[in-house]
Design goal:
Layout (H helix, E strand, L loop, with lengths): L1 H16 L4 E2 L8 E3 L3 E3 L5 H5 L23 E11 L9 E5 L6 E5 L2 E6 L15 E5 L7 E11 L11 E5 H31 L7 H27 L6 H26 L5 H23 L8 H28 L5 H21 L4 H47 L1 H17 L1 H21 L5 E2 H19 L2 E7 L6 E2 L3 H13 L5 E11 L2 E8 L15 H14 L4 E7 L2 E9 L5
Parallel strand pairs: 1-4, 12-14
Antiparallel strand pairs: 2-10, 3-4, 4-9, 5-8, 5-10, 6-7, 6-9, 11-13, 14-15, 15-17, 16-17
Helix pairs in contact: 3-4, 3-9, 4-5, 5-6, 5-7, 6-7, 7-8, 8-9, 9-14, 10-11, 11-12, 12-13, 13-14
């Protein structure tokens, strides 16, 4: 029932629209898009369609394409009546601009052949033309009154005869200048988007959350591609039988434009439910992009095509509004850069409205150029903040590292070690010699690796075992270390496991003489998990995993310096002692 009511309303609208010719005011309108066409599927005598004195028996309006299919192939006609209420100046003429039709076509003005591209004929004899054609009309051809513009089109290489691109008429010099301005603006904007995409791609290695910057780069590349496709069609003069192939490339870029902007902002602002939302956006975007192509290939009825094009435009608005909603939510949550990006999104929306309501072709792209600037500013500020935090973290790690080294060299550490050496010299000189040797090895390795960002896991284990050897002789206890799992090819910040063992010895074995430290190394996907377990006393420590001592702060600072937020560090009591877990990404650093 709804479909029938819609059809009746469209037919009424078509009849009213086609009841009078379209008026052209060359003195006021520099460019006029010809909006209403009569369409005919059969190729009768040329005079039946192209002269103002004859009228065909039936008329099919542009709007009626929603309810009537066009023949899949063959020759068909477009016909429209234009009315000039004023004469042209004797020195100026008009130009008809046709970006692209189907294959070859002939243009008739008041029944006379005025221009053509290719050769219109049978499927065996026709020869395709090129896009981006302009046809000149002299002042004598544009006298006051009605004129008939008719186009005879061959349609053999494409599956439908739909009129996709707007045909415009205007004063020759001004129309040429308009086209030149559009071409220049398209090239300029495409250049801006390309430079932006390259800038973010080349600077990815220096940033956290790289995937968000990749998404923004792909979005900018999609906009560049979309502009490039339609610039080639409008100004490049490509063979019309390749039009559909180029349009498919345009579909891919269009998908990137309507899908990647909200997805980028969802990821950038870490919005709630972003995973399921991203999936929904991808599915809807693919569906919206594919449906018109299905109609163009007669998989869906061709009469749906205008509605499907409107659906794409509607979905573009939904995409932009969704992106604005995500940014507004980030502003409420006081996320950095959200205010700047929201201003850019608002300008982008205004540009899109200007394009759709006022038929200004590059309005959306100018709006996006502003959005591009605002997003780049926000990302640059974020990048600067990340670098600032990185340097702070690096400085903090260096200071804590220095504190640890000082701790090893503090007088009481050396005094206790010397007292142990003196005691062993009196009792067992051989043990004293081994203690001196072990202590010198530990100090030598600590000084050697102090300035490194990462060392091999095997080197870290060696330091840990030497430290336990020193503590065995100093405290006259029996400490040992067991290592399980693979250790080759793994690099970690220096002294983090050494610090874990120091804390374990200091806090877990005051009342125990035997201590076993077990290190288990596991690989899972792209993560490396190191678990250090000791069988010490767990009652003298707080099992919160949020220690505030110098050693714990050193470990966290070292991990943050190398891995940003892509690590985990927990230390807690277990039934048979104490356990520390450190998880880091394999081969990934900030």
């Amino acid at each position: 029932m709804i479909q029938y009511i819609t059809t009746i309303l469209i037919l009424i609208l078509t009849a009213v629209t086609l009841g009078s010719p379209q008026n052209i005011f060359p003195s006021e309108q520099h460019e006029t898009v010809i909006e209403h066409w009569e369409i005919f599927n059969n190729d009768l005598a040329i005079s039946n369609y192209s002269t103002p004195k004859t009228k065909p028996d039936y008329i099919i309006g542009k709007q009626e394409l929603r309810t009537r299919e066009i023949n899949s192939s063959g020759i068909h006609w477009y016909r429209t009546v234009l009315f000039f209420p004023e004469p042209l100046a004797s020195t100026e003429g008009l130009t008809i601009s046709i970006p692209a039709l189907q294959d070859a076509y002939e243009l008739y003005w008041d029944g006379k052949l005025t221009g053509l591209t290719g050769r219109v004929g049978s499927k065996e004899t026709y020869q395709t033309g090129k896009s981006g054609r302009h046809f000149y009309l002299s002042p004598q051809q544009c006298s006051t009154g009605e004129h008939v513009l008719a186009i005879r089109v061959a349609n053999y290489s494409n599956n439908t005869g739909s009129l996709t691109f707007p045909i415009a008429i205007g004063r020759s010099e001004e129309l040429r200048q308009i086209q030149l301005n559009r071409f220049s603006l398209s090239i300029f904007l495409a250049g801006i988007f390309t430079v932006t995409a390259l800038f973010h791609l080349f600077s990815i290695d220096n940033r956290k959350r790289r995937h968000t910057h990749i998404l923004f780069s792909l979005f900018a590349i999609s906009c560049t591609g979309h502009i490039a496709v339609y610039t080639v069609i409008f100004f490049g003069g490509i063979p019309l039988n390749h039009l559909q192939h180029l349009a498919i490339a345009g579909d891919l870029f269009w998908f990137g434009m309507i899908a990647l902007l909200p997805i980028f902002l969802l990821s950038h602002f870490a919005a709630f439910g972003r995973k399921i939302t991203r999936t929904i956006i991808v599915v809807l975007s693919i569906t919206v992009v594919i449906l018109p192509r299905l109609a163009l290939y007669n998989i869906l009825p061709v009469r749906f095509l205008p509605a499907l094009h409107d659906l794409n435009l509607f979905y573009a608005y939904i995409s932009v509004l969704s992106a604005i909603a995500v940014t507004a939510g980030a502003l409420v949550r006081k996320r950095k850069g959200s205010r700047t990006i929201l201003i850019g999104m608002t300008v982008f929306l205004i540009g899109l409205i200007v394009t759709t309501l006022f038929n200004i072709a590059n309005g959306w792209s100018v709006g996006f150029a502003f959005l591009n600037v605002f997003i780049t500013i926000a990302l640059s500020r974020q990048f600067a903040e990340e670098r600032k935090q990185f340097y702070k973290s690096e400085l903090r790690a260096s200071r804590l590292e220095l504190e640890l080294l000082k701790g090893h060299l503090q007088p009481h550490f050396l005094l206790n070690s010397l007292n142990s050496i003196v005691a062993w010299i009196e009792e067992e000189p051989a043990v004293a010699a081994r203690l001196v040797n072990a202590l010198s090895q530990e100090l030598r390795l600590l000084l050697a690796y102090a300035g490194e960002r990462k060392i091999n896991l095997s080197q870290e284990i060696k330091i840990c075992k030497i430290h336990l050897k020193v503590m065995n002789m100093r405290q006259e206890k029996n400490y040992s270390m067991i290592v399980k799992g693979e250790r080759e090819g793994i690099e970690i910040p220096p002294f983090i496991l050494h610090t874990v063992i120091e804390n374990g010895v200091s806090h877990g074995f005051r009342k125990k003489d035997d201590g076993v430290f077990t290190l288990t190394v596991e690989r899972s996907n792209d993560q490396i998990l190191m678990t250090m377990h000791n069988n010490g006393d767990n009652r003298s420590r707080t099992a919160t995993g949020e220690g505030k001592g110098t050693g714990i702060r050193y470990i966290r600072s070292r991990l943050q310096e190398l891995y940003g937020t892509k690590y985990s560090f927990l230390t807690y009591s277990v039934d048979d002692g104490w356990e520390t877990k450190i998880s880091i990404p394999q081969g990934s650093v900030v």
